[in-house]
Automatic annotation (TrEMBL):
Family membership noted in the UniProt record: Belongs to the AB hydrolase superfamily. FUS2 hydrolase family.
UniProt keyword list: Hydrolase
Name of this chain's protein: Alpha/beta fold hydrolase
Coiled coil: none
Organism: Ktedonosporobacter rubrisoli
Short name of any one Pfam family annotated for the protein: Abhydrolase_6
Length: 391
């Protein structure tokens, strides 16, 4: 699927923003008029134009709030939050670009302004973790404190907790689920404000989050599920292999090993050859971003370090340790990790379901960008049926 841009990476990131319009994370005309001002494959143009749109919508939100129009303010703040997130996206190709921290802070500020105006009771939380805390949000399906089935959510390689709420959590809250959204090492505030890089042993991250969830009276301990998106399609199953208090695990999309094309093309090469190939790969916008993101979130220092760190993210020898029912989703035209969902599914020995999204139904892109209503509906129905046995 190509929209506006010929470059695959720019087109996908545009679809990612546009697709959230169904849940209020964007407005279609705002997206297309912004994209029309962006030069294809031009990172600076991308930043400038999304920032300009975000700032305009934030001013609109501020004005609505000042005049007492709470719903209008909420809607505009959520769009501005998402537009700022998109504006920041490519800035990490330059590790010292000060605009990344500034733009992220604006996105976070907009979400915090929207938080008390949301239709679901929500609060910022800090989850105890190895001498510090992890940031997150706890949302209740309604104002009661009745124990409910609860979804623990985390994103992947580049998303934020705020994007999870905007694009994914809302339809589950509408269906009566509480949602605990957190950011682990390498993600959101944890990397940007706390300097915590990714780690492959994600069970060490999720277990404290489960501890926190079970400390809350609103959480039904028999109906606690874990949802991982994108790289989270590895992280969530990895955690479920060792954390057996979960009643279900969802991988969107399933990932057996985190071995992007850049890492594969460096295999079997000397350090000098790998360095030269690394530099060649970095000329393509998508790969340049992926490498810059690895430097930022994984603290990669060299091509050899890149290979070594990527190799640690694998479900080999671990997939068969998962005991809870697990849903593995696949996007037919996933340009990041083709074939990976089937590898994960085949390695599982627990009760399992394979859910494929096709081009014919518009769900073929990574994470089913552009088909969120379809994806969330099918996944939620699976979860309803799976957790019904624990009611």
């Amino acid at each position: 699927m190509k929209l506006v841009f010929k470059n695959e990476t720019f087109s996908f990131e545009f679809l990612r923003v546009l697709g959230s319009s169904i849940y209020g994370g964007a407005d279609i005309s705002e997206c297309f008029t912004t994209a029309a001002r962006i030069k294809d494959k031009d990172f600076e143009s991308w930043y400038q134009e999304w920032s300009a749109t975000a700032a305009r919508i934030e001013r609109l939100a501020d004005d609505c709030l000042e005049r007492g129009h709470g719903v209008s303010a909420r809607e505009a703040y959520l769009r501005a939050c998402n537009y700022y997130r998109s504006a920041e996206f490519f800035l990490h190709i330059e590790p010292d670009d000060p605009r990344a921290a500034e733009t992220y802070a604006k996105s976070l500020r907009c979400f915090r302004q929207a938080l008390p105006l949301l239709p679901f009771p929500g609060e910022e939380v800090r989850i105890p973790y190895e001498g510090t805390t992890l940031p997150g949000y706890f949302f209740r399906a309604d104002a009661s404190h009745e124990p409910r089935p609860t979804l623990i959510w985390h994103t992947g390689y580049d998303g934020t907790a705020e994007e999870i709420y905007i694009a994914h959590a809302q339809p589950f809250l509408q269906r009566g689920y509480n949602c605990l959204i957190f950011e682990g090492p390498g993600q959101g505030q944890a990397i940007r404000l706390q300097g915590l890089p990714f780690r492959p042993d994600w069970e060490k991250v999720v277990t404290p989050v489960v501890d926190y969830a079970l400390s809350r009276s609103e959480v039904d301990p028999r109906r606690l599920a874990l949802f991982g998106l994108s790289l989270g399609g590895y992280l969530a199953p990895r955690a479920a292999a060792y954390e057996h208090r979960l009643a279900a695990c969802i991988a969107v999309d399933g990932l057996f090993s985190f071995s992007p094309a850049a890492a594969e093309q460096l295999e079997g090469q000397t350090e000098q050859q790998a360095t030269e190939r690394f530099e060649q790969l970095a000329q393509e916008p998508g790969m340049r971003w992926a490498i810059g993101q690895a430097v930022f979130t994984m603290q990669v220092t060299s091509p050899g370090d890149f290979r070594q760190k990527m190799a640690a993210y694998t479900m080999a020898g671990r997939a068969d340790k998962i005991t809870c029912p697990t849903l593995v989703c696949e996007a037919e035209k996933d340009h990041f990790f083709p074939g990976q969902p089937r590898k994960l599914y085949d390695a599982l020995t627990c009760p399992k379901t394979f859910m494929r999204f096709t081009a014919a139904e518009g769900g073929e892109e990574h994470g089913h960008a552009g088909a969120l209503a379809l994806a969330n509906q099918r996944i939620a129905d699976w979860l309803d049926e799976t957790l019904s046995h624990n009611a």
